[in-house]
Amino acid sequence: MLNIHPALLPSFGGPGYYGIKVHKAVVNAGCRVTGPTVHFVDEEYDSGKIVGQRTVQVFPTDSPEEVAARVLKEEHILYPHVVAALCDGRVAWNEEGIPMIRLVTEGHEWQ
Question: Which of 5, 23, 81, 108 is flagged as catalytic?
Answer without folding.
Answer: 5
